[in-house]
Amino acid sequence: MKLFDVYPLNDITITKAQGSYVWDENGAQYLDMYGGHAVISIGHTHPHWVKRIEDQLHKIAFYSNSVHIPIQKELAEKLGKISGKEDYQLFLVNSGAEANENALKLASFHTGRKKIVAFEKAFHGRTSLAVAATDNPKIVAPVNETDNVDFLPFNDEAALKTYFQKNGTSVAAVIIEGIQGVGGINVATESFLQLIRSLCDEYGAVYIADSVQCGYGRSGKFFSHDYAGVNADIYTMAKGMGNGFPVGGILIAPHIKAKHGILGTTFGGNHLACAAALAVLEVIEEEKLIDVAKQRGQYLFNRLKAIDGIQNIRGRGMMIGFDVPEEIKDLRKKLFNDHFIFTGEAKPNVIRLLPAMNISRKQVDEFLDTLKEAIAEMKAAKEVEA
Ligand code: PMP
């Protein structure tokens, strides 16, 4: 049997990983500059994460949500403490799409309304509601098409106000990534997030902070929305939450109620997933990784700014993007040949950096030095051509 085709591959087979390094089947070493797509938060195969999962595996791996599962409570407590959202409730799922699917459904249960506001270039997942709120026609099947989602321009306060004045009382939810990931690393302005908060309050809509990619400390704060000093009604999480173990969750503010509806899942919150998620939080705490992501991200950002030949550097913490000008459009390919791995992009001229939060300073320097050399070489080759 053959594998079903998914998105374009990096032409490499990775068989071993540790920290921010991965190795292919021939033992060649690569630096993972996108953390397996923002999933690796505390480094590949972190010893504490391995041990936590291993210990749990010997006790119990899974039992359904039809019984008490104390490790879920342990996770909720720790998550509340580190995120500062102690009064929220935690609902555990298996992926980012499932988190957003449930968040949108819950918002609709809560408000009794149908309209969802999403933003241009947003990515929220590949299941029915999540994909309907995703601005990418290639992944929306005819069955997912709905009139219930309206896309507005990102960071456009006037457009959002006008929309709410007209339609505010039918809006169930506004869903927004604090920093758009797949869309190319676009940071929501603080005033835009504050406006969403105040319009949702005024019109009784639910503010959903999709923190699947930009959450769990990656931005240099636990949630990137924290930069704007706002509390969302629902936060969705996955990716970095398990550091490679599939686990997702939604944090629900105390006033949000499912009313007549029920949420559920078979595998969500299984013992192994909770052990993985707890291990991640313990390492974040022990190694102060949110501060590390902020400071090292700032260092990376500043050094990128000093490199001639790349444009529009943007992002926060360990979530940084930049544009590659036409004259060196093969930069990503060249860097891959130099053994740095990035995520595949819809737009080939964008490079997204999403390494583990604890990528070392030395590894960051290794990337930056190679980047600088690669640009210089490519430019020199162009001059020779000309
Ligand atoms: N939300 C965001 C912001 C994402 O980046 C992604 C995945 N790229 C998802 C949701 C969907 O997550 P998953 O692939 O785990 O379903």
Can you give keywords for this protein?
386 residues; alpha/beta; four-stranded mixed beta sheet; 11 helices; binds 4'-deoxy-4'-aminopyridoxal-5'-phosphate; Aminotrans_3; PyrdxlP-dep_Trfase; transferase
Descriptive notes:
- The structure is a single chain.
- The chain is an alpha/beta fold and about 375 residues long.
- It has a domain at about 70-255 and about 265-285: Type I PLP-dependent aspartate aminotransferase-like (Major domain) (Aspartate Aminotransferase, domain 2), CATH 3.40.640.
- Helices cover about 35% and strands about 20% of the residues.
- The chain has 11 helices and 16 strands.
- The strands form 4 sheets. The protein has a 7-stranded mixed sheet with strand order 4-12-11-10-7-5-6, sandwiched between helices.
- 4'-deoxy-4'-aminopyridoxal-5'-phosphate (PMP) binds near residues 181 and 182.
